[in-house]
């Protein structure tokens, strides 16, 4: 089972309920909405997509299928932008 963790070399700052960050290696800027920020916080240690979904479903009223689809899509974007590492 693949697990994901945010890379420590990214600079991130929380502003209200959102996170803004910069990928130093690529020089890219990213802004995360409230849910994206929650996922980013969850990724402070290695978590599987299933674990992320379970944690989000405790906080948000969303069906499992939709949550799973959205989390997979978000993790794919983080991976494409080299913001997470895998184990």
Structural notes for this entry:
- This protein has helices at 34-42, 49-59, 64-80, and strands at 4-6, 11-15, 18-23, 28-32, 84-86.
- The termini are close together.
- Helix 2 packs across helix 3 (64-80).
- A hairpin with a 4-residue loop joins strand 3 (18-23) and strand 4.
- The protein has a single domain, classed as Alpha-Beta Complex (Outer Surface Protein A, domain 3).
- The strands form two sheets. Strands 2-3-4 form a three-stranded antiparallel β-sheet.
- The chain is 43% helix and 25% strand.
- The chain is built from three helices and five strands.
- It has 87 residues and is an alpha+beta fold.
- The longest helix has 17 residues, at 64-80.
Short description:
This protein has 87 residues and is an alpha+beta fold. It has helices spanning 34-42, 49-59, 64-80; strands at 4-6, 11-15, 18-23, 28-32, 84-86.
Q: Which descriptors apply to this entry?
A:
globular, alpha+beta, 87 residues, Outer Surface Protein A, domain 3, 43% helix
Q: What are the segments in which pLDDT stays under 50 over at least 5 consecutive residues? A: none
| Outline type | globular
| Rg calc | 12 Å
Assembly type of the shown chains?
single chain
Instruction: Quickly count the domains.
Output: 1
Q: How many E strands?
A: 5
The main sheet orders its strands as 2-3-4
The CATH architecture term is Alpha-Beta Complex
**At the first level of CATH, what is the class?**
Alpha Beta
Largest sheet, if any?
3 strands, antiparallel
Instruction: State the order of secondary-structure elements, H for helix, E for strand.
Output: EEEEHHHE
- Average pLDDT over all residues: 93
User: Helices and strands: which structural class?
Assistant: alpha+beta
Strand content bin: 25-35%
- The count of helical stretches stands at 3
Q: How is the CATH topology named?
A: Outer Surface Protein A, domain 3
